[in-house]
């Protein structure tokens, strides 16, 4: 990496630590139910809803509550899209979204995936964006954080058998965490130039009118050159949605270009804030975990494992993009003074951000469960695109989404101590809780459900005409586009390689199933683990207890995460980005005189 890219990464990590540490105190208080005077405000809400905040639930009730709540969210977002022509705040006059696209979008935003097979500024009015997508940005994020709260309670409590109240957790996370942070961030973004208005569009003149060729009145005559004098630009309440999109690791863009659009992300300052906001809650949750279990070293150990994998991913992505396309260099057009390749591969990247910021953003958004992008991953070099894809396939546990990153990494921690127990012939323990058969069965389900979904959906897509019809780039790159799409859906990321026309009944249905099962196929077994751990006493560490706060455990945790990812996805990656890289290198070598 260049010195500038290295400095950027170091400054990012320092700023992240400075924000996450104080936020972890608030999160620890929410996990433990310490809301102070805010409880007076909540009292009226509990009376209206008929909820007893003191009642704690066993894990089946907690899981059922989340499933019902999110199921109703799917219905609400679907109906908003279908009834759009009759809704207010639709200045563009958009019609109803097709049933398959509406269902895909509803499941996408409810599961915190935010996969978008449509262009937002050309499909959805302001009310549908705010009341449907914007609200679910809050509620899907709250769902993930609530599951993390439940698992942390299961590890911290002593033989209670309950893991909290789902309704209380959802309300408190939304009211006291997400809403205040999103409000402050939205105001900051608006001050930096992000659009926030109820206007539908604005027409502006071109500074330098482009020339377009239009058919002549006489069909036999040559086309006529006509200058275009003005352009219509879409507007809307963007800053408010952008704030929770990033803080909640949602990723759904108001505009089709997502955070590469200047109305969503005007410049370096807004880009820096957006990158920090993606990781701040996931990092703070890990530190809060250490506070709640009574040993801050436990949180620091998990955070160290996440950071180590993330740093390597950023370095690999940036180095691959700065190396550039070998075929361009071999063709003789790269003399290091060429604007095309000077400094690396600028294809698909905004010049106002450059290679280093775009590579860092790509690693951030794919390590987290956030589909926001400032560059086109499809235009990355094969190895540069492989790293973001693999970060998604690891289960997005490298900081990960809000809540999902912590509970996903804790699942890997349970697997790591189980493997260590097998090596020494001792019943594994984690934080004083014995890890037994039931826990390992649920760990296996939680870890294997998303790889099964990804590989099965990929196989269905490449073996059917309807799946192959969406490929714009034939060969290995087309396979990479399909593999990325299914990985993004099943792991609830939402970003896309692009180049794949996925807004069809086949793709909308396939990815909708993958998104729903990828979300709740992990959440339910995680809650089952939390419930079983909550029934067990916390044992004092003995002479044979594996310390889970030191460098040895950090290395074991990293090895477990990478081993599972390697065994599961390396064969598929070899067929896609690895094969493309070798092909490009071979062609470049053959092109030299």
Note the total helix count: 18
Q: What count of structural domains?
A: 1
Q: What low-confidence regions span 5 or more consecutive residues with pLDDT below 50?
A: 336-340
Strand order of the largest sheet: 1-4
- What's the order of the H and E elements? HHHHHHEEEEHHHHHHHEEHHHHH
The outline comes out as globular
Q: Report the radius of gyration as a whole number of Å.
A: 24 Å
Overview features:
593 residues; mainly alpha; two-stranded antiparallel sheet; 18 helices; 6 strands; globular
How does this model look, in words?
- The chain has 593 residues and is mostly helical.
- The protein has one domain.
- Helix content is 62%, strand content 4%.
- It has 18 helices and 6 strands.
- The strands form 3 sheets. Strands 1-4 form a two-stranded antiparallel sheet.
- A hairpin with a 2-residue loop joins strand 5 and strand 6.
- Helix 3 runs antiparallel to helix 4, helix 3 runs antiparallel to helix 17 and helix 9 packs parallel to helix 18.
- It is globular and about 90 Å long.
- The relative contact order is 0.12.
- About 1% of the residues have low confidence.
Layout of SSEs?
Blueprint: H1 3-31, H2 38-49, H3 59-82, H4 99-110, H5 126-156, H6 166-191, E1 201-205, E2 211-214, E3 224-227, E4 230-234, H7 238-247, H8 268-292, H9 296-323, H10 326-330, H11 354-367, H12 382-393, H13 404-424, E5 429-430, E6 433-434, H14 437-463, H15 465-468, H16 476-490, H17 505-534, H18 551-591
Helix pairs in contact: 1-6, 1-8, 3-4, 3-5, 3-17, 4-17, 5-6, 5-7, 5-17, 6-7, 8-9, 9-11, 9-12, 9-18, 11-12, 12-18, 13-14, 13-18, 14-16, 14-17, 16-17, 16-18
């Amino acid at each position: 990496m260049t010195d500038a890219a290295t400095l950027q990464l170091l400054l990012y990590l320092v700023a992240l630590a400075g924000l996450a540490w104080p936020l972890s105190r608030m999160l620890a208080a929410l996990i433990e139910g310490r809301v102070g005077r805010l409880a007076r405000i909540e009292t009226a809400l509990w009376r209206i809803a008929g909820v007893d905040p003191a009642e704690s639930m066993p894990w089946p009730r907690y899981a059922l509550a989340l499933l019902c709540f999110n199921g109703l969210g799917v219905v609400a977002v679907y109906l908003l899209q279908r009834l759009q022509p009759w809704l207010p705040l639709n200045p563009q006059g958009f019609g109803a979204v097709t049933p398959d696209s509406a269902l895909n979008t509803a499941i996408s935003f409810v599961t915190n995936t935010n996969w978008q097979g449509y262009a937002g500024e050309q499909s959805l009015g302001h009310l549908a964006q705010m009341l449907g997508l914007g609200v679910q940005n809050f509620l899907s994020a709250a769902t993930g954080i609530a599951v993390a709260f439940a698992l942390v309670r299961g590890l911290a409590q002593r033989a209670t058998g309950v893991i909290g109240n789902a309704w209380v957790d959802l309300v408190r996370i939304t009211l006291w965490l997400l809403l205040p942070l999103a409000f402050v961030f939205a105001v900051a973004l608006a001050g930096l130039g992000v659009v926030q208005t109820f206007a539908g569009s604005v027409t502006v003149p071109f500074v330098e009118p482009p020339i377009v060729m239009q058919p002549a009145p006489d069909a036999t005559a040559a086309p006529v050159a006509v200058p275009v004098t003005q352009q219509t630009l879409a507007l809307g309440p963007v800053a408010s949605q952008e704030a929770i999109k990033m803080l909640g690791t949602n990723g759904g863009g108001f505009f089709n270009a997502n955070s590469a659009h200047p109305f969503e992300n005007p410049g370096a300052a807004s880009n820096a804030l957006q990158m920090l906001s993606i990781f701040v809650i996931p990092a703070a949750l890990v530190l809060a975990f250490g506070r709640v279990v009574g040993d801050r070293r436990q949180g620091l150990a998990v955070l160290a494992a996440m950071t180590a994998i993330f740093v390597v991913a950023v370095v690999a992505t940036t180095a691959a993009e700065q190396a550039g396309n070998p075929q361009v260099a071999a063709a003789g057009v790269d003399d290091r003074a060429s604007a095309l390749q000077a400094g690396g591969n600028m294809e698909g990247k905004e010049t106002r951000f450059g290679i280093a910021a775009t590579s860092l953003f790509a690693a951030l958004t794919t390590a987290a469960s956030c589909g926001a992008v400032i560059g086109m991953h499809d235009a990355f070099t094969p190895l540069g695109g492989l790293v973001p894809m693999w970060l998604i396939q690891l289960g997005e546990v490298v900081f990960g989404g809000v809540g999902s990153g912590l509970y996903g990494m804790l699942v890997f921690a349970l697997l790591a101590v189980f493997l260590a127990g097998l090596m020494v012939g001792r019943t594994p323990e984690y934080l004083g809780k014995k890890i037994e058969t039931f826990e390992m069965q649920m760990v296996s389900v939680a870890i294997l459900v998303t790889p099964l979904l990804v590989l099965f959906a990929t196989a269905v897509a490449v073996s059917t005409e309807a799946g192959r019809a969406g490929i714009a780039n034939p060969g290995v790159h087309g396979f990479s586009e399909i593999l990325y799409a299914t990985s993004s859906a099943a792991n609830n990321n939402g970003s896309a390689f692009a180049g794949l026309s996925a807004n069809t009944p086949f793709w909308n249905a396939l990815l909708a199933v993958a998104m729903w099962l990828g979300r709740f196929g992990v959440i339910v077994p995680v809650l089952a683990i939390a419930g079983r751990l909550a029934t067990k006493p916390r044992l004092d560490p003995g002479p044979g207890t594996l310390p889970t706060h030191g460098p040895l455990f950090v290395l074991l945790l990293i090895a477990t995460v990478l081993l599972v990812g390697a065994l599961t996805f390396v064969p598929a990656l070899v067929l896609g980005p690895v094969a493309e890289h070798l092909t490009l290198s071979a062609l470049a070598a053959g092109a030299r005189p």
